Amino acid sequence: MYAIFDCDNCYCSCERVFRPDLVGKPVVVLSNNDGCVVARSAEAKALGIPAGMPYFQLKEQFGAYNVTAFSSNYELYGEMTARVMSLISKACPYFYRYSIDEAFCDLSRMRIDDLKKWGEDLHKKILKWTGIPVSIGIAPTKTLAKCADRFAKDYKGYNHCCVIDSDEKREKALKLFPIDKVWGIGRRYADRLLRDDVHTAWEFTQLGAHWVRSTFNINALRTWQELQGIDCVPTEQMTAKKSICTSRSFPGMIDDFTTLRTHVSNYAARCSEKLRKQHSVCSMVMVFIDTNHFRPDLPQYDNACSKTFLTPVNTTQEVVSGALECLKRIFRTSYKYKRAGVIVSGISGDNPVQTDFTDYNATAREKLRRLTEAVDNINRRNGSETIVLGSQQYTAKDGKGKADTFRNAIKHDLRSPNYTTRWSDILIVR
């Protein structure tokens, strides 16, 4: 049996931990640069606020409903969800994290009759200790556990824990589960199945295995088998990413190389941090830039460039250096850029690393590794970006024409304090 833990409305729940006055009220979290809605509380969803709604439209259409909006604060969300994951890992040693707010547990060594109470008790403990509500789905396969988690989230009668432990329960659940909500069925596959009059997960299981394999691919067949109760999604397929992308749209438009370089440096640094977090290295970095295609009155341009490393890397300096080398090749003047991004790929484990026999920088690379490890430790203790590369800062002119240096080039006017990671933001209790 497997259990999946999913934090309910994760980002909004993290904000409410320190703002209990917002419990029961509509709350949304905005994307980078305060562009659009990326997370909604249950109350915001009930108002009809859609995911992806631009913030300016939210203020125009829902201004009368007193919706509280926050800029995304990933430092806070990452630290709060880490507390949740710590409690889960202690309750179930066979634990692996799937995303920032989701984790799978292998419950094969537990009695099936005890699982329901175990899940309900753990939900209560996590809520009491962290303030974040979680929903728990338990089933013989990971895909069925995801289905059970949806029922635990949507129906209060389950007390935040739904268990599918028999064929009767599996059939009943799948007949109520929309095909486009099934984990592993993307939008393109769902559209095809709906055209073939397949509307529920149960109807999908009634199709032939050969038809599923020939029409889609091996991953769709695995989903089909999982819904049948056959455990076949490999754990290693879920734990590490095969590529990592960090991209953003800018608050305005950028036409100078220096500012664009700062954004790309920050994105490359994020990618390298994610690589080290999952104990992996990359053999390729790619950079892409794009103008604003919603402005046909302006000249349009987009391009991408990649660099292959002789020896796979994960240090901030090497990834950022490779990204900036790519940016220099594709940057063109006379264009106003609206978006940029960095993708690292060719990912493998960081121990051992296969070196190239023409690479003579082994000593320098070891020094970089130790330096990066020291910087990570300092940033972990004192808050992210306590120490950054020079290229991650950008310089702008203030109203008096004086140069001023900033750490973050992302707009976040509504961001909450980092209550748990920065001494300057710690709560003061009266």
Summarize, please.
The chain has 430 residues and is α+β, with helices and mostly antiparallel strands.
Q: Please name the CATH architecture of the largest domain.
A: 2-Layer Sandwich
The largest sheet has its strands arranged as 5-6-1-7-8
How much beta, percentage-wise?
15-25%
C-alpha termini separation: 47 Å
CATH fold field value of the largest domain: Alpha-Beta Plaits
- The total domain count is 3
Q: In terms of per-residue confidence, which ranges show pLDDT below 50 for 5 or more consecutive residues?
A: 401-407
Query: What is the overall pLDDT average?
Result: 85
Q: Superfamily at the CATH H level of the largest domain? A: Reverse transcriptase/Diguanylate cyclase domain
What is the number of helical segments per DSSP (H or I, 4+ residues)?
Answer: 15
Please identify the structural class as seen in this structure.
alpha+beta
How does this model look, in words?
The protein is of the alpha+beta class. It folds into three domains: 8-76, MutS, DNA mismatch repair protein, domain I (3-Layer(aba) Sandwich), CATH 3.40.1170; 78-236, Alpha-Beta Plaits (2-Layer Sandwich), CATH 3.30.70.270; 240-392, DNA polymerase, Y-family, little finger domain (Dna Ligase, domain 1, 2-Layer Sandwich). It is 40% helix and 21% strand. The protein is built from 15 helices and 15 strands. Helix 6 (142-154) links the parallel strand 7 (134-139) and strand 8. Residues 401-407 have low confidence and may be disordered.
